[in-house]
Design goal:
This protein has two helices and two strands, in the order αββα. It has 65 residues and is mainly alpha-helical.
Length: 65
């Protein structure tokens, strides 16, 4: 009904804006960089490359074909 819908909208508006999961952004664990993020490793592309070159990421090798 109209009253139920209006009440539900009012409750949603009372919630803090940042409580929405859609507003969360994946960030690199080391640098905090929000772009170029690899979920599997939890790192940004730059820090992932550095770690891979040092051999800190098991199973990750530089591509060659």
């Amino acid at each position: 009904s109209f009253e139920e819908r209006q009440e539900a909208m009012f409750k949603l508006q009372k919630l803090p804006r940042d409580s929405s999961p859609a507003r969360q952004r994946n960030r690199c664990a080391i640098s905090g960089r929000p772009r170029g993020f690899y979920r599997k490793f939890g790192l940004g592309r730059n820090k992932l490359r550095e770690a891979a070159m040092r051999g800190d990421v098991p199973g990750l090798r530089k591509a060659s074909w």
